[in-house]
Structures are given as structure tokens and as C-alpha cells.
Amino acid sequence: AICAEMIAFGRETGNNRSVTFGMQGLAFLAVTTLSFSTAIGISHKSNEIATDPIYSETVKISWATGAALGGDTAEARKAMDDLRRSSAAGVRLPLPLMARLVEGLAMLGEGELSKGMEELISTERDAKSVSREWEALYAELFICVAFTRISTQSAASGLKDLARNPGFVRYVRQARKETGTRLMDVIARCEAEGALGLIPISRYHYAVYLLHIGDTAAARSQLEDCMAELESVGITEGTERVRSLLASIPPD
Q1: Helix or strand (DSSP H, E) at 90
Q2: Which residues contact 53 (CB under 8 A, 6 or more apart)?
Q3: In the Cβ-directed half-sphere of 3, how many Cα atoms lie within 13 Å?
Q4: What is the mean pLDDT of residues 141-169?
Q5: Quick one: DSSP state of residue 68?
Q6: Pick from 75, 72, 79: which is nearest to 98 by CA?
Q7: What angle do the packed helices 237-247 and 216-232 form, to 10 degrees?
Q8: Do residues 54 and 94 touch, judged by C-beta distance below 8 A?
Q9: pLDDT, tens digit (0-9, with 9 covering 90-100), for 11-68
Q10: Spatial separation of the C-alpha atoms in residues 239 and 52, rounded to whole Å
């Protein structure tokens, strides 16, 4: 509601920054509610009208984040290349830790498996070292997303990727051992700290992991809770994503 009000105010008063900032908020909401295509679309529109560099670069972070979490590595890389060009031109990038998280997931999608995990883990460590708690929480979520992809074998495209990432085996072992526990911890932390916007995406990935290990009852419970959370705020794309996965679970 606040984002919509900012957009409406900006359009009524000709305040471009207000419109862009409101759209930025909607894009981040879309990211955390599994509406990745929506997040990318909003980011593109916002980028077209942004006149202030700091706003346009922040929009690109939303674009890259939506693409990376949605598994669209090529789109994430396109956004990151855009950010890199801005940085080379002397523009100070906002949210540098978020950009590094996106870079880590993008590298995983590109087959740079060990480097991708190292980037995610070092970013979380750096966020904690400077007490950037919300970015540390995002880092933990990104690591959980990566671990879910690793443990369900969607991160490595085959023996070729593993052969050129010999150190990656340790992350495979770690993911198989820790994915479920870490996702439960993220959900509990979000509930305790009021970061409710990150719960749906955490529940979804927990359900994907639970399905992979054969715990269909627990996966169904997580997805039903996730759907209720998304429906309560009128999210369409994310709800359909959850409904589709829920429909794939065979009846008990």
C-alpha cells in the first residue's frame, strides 16, 4: 500500500524519484513473494524512467535479484554487467553486499560452482562483521537457496562442471547435511525478527528440499502455509508457483 501511494503521489506531483522508489519497493516485494517475472518486469519499467543514478542502480539490484532467485542466470548476468559498467563509469553502487549475493548465485548457474559458494559465504561473513543484520539475513537466505539447488542436484549441470570445480564436493556434503536445518532456522529468525516478507520464499525452498528427501507431508504443510501467506496479500504469480508445486505432490 505504501509503495502504491508513493507511485500515485509521484505521478500527481511529477516527482520522478517518488515513482521510482515506489516501484523499487514493489519489485523487492515481488522478489520475496516468488513473483520473479513480476520483479524483473517492474525493474525494467522503473529503470526506463529513473533519472537519478542512485535510484536506477538500486532498481538494477532488484532486477538482478529477481532473476538470480528465479533461476534465470542469463538475465541476472545481464543486470550485473549493467551494474559493472556503471561502476566502471564512476557511479557508486548501492547495496554492494546484495550485488555480491546475486553474483554468487549467478556464478553457480554458470557452472562456477566453488567460486559461487565462496562468494556467498564471504558476503555473509562480511555482512556480519559490519553488523548489517538484514543483509546477513539475506545472505543466509541466498546460501539456503544455493544449498537447495545443490542438494536437489540442480546447481551442477553435469560431470563437466564438477570436474572443473574439484573443491565443490565439500559444499555438496554440507548442503546435504545442513539445508533443512538452515532453512528452518531462517524461517524461525524471520518470524522472530519481523522479517515476514522473506518467509514465503524460505518456505518454498524448504518444501522443495523436503520433496527431494521424500517428506511429502511436511512439504505439503509448508506449501499450504506459504500459499496462505501469499494469498493474504493478493500475490498472483507466487501463488501460482506454489500451487503448481503443491499439485505435483501425490496424495497420501
Answers
A1: none
A2: 86, 91
A3: 13
A4: 78
A5: H
A6: 79
A7: 160
A8: yes
A9: 999 888 888 888 888 888 888 889 999 999 998 888 888 877 777 788 888 889 999 9
A10: 34
User: Does the structure show a pLDDT above 70 at 106?
Assistant: yes
Cell of 14: 511529477
Only one residue has cell 533461476, namely 71
Q: Are 199 and 137 in contact (CB under 8 A)?
A: no
Distance CA 125, CA 166 (A): 23
- Identity of residue 236: T
Rounded CA-CA distance 20/31 in Å is 16
Ramachandran area for residue 250 (φ above 0: left; ψ -120 to 50: alpha; else beta)? beta
Residue 225 burial by Cβ neighbours in a 10 Å radius (0-12, 13-18, 19+): middle
Burial of residue 48 (CB within 10 Å: 0-12, 13-18, 19+) is exposed
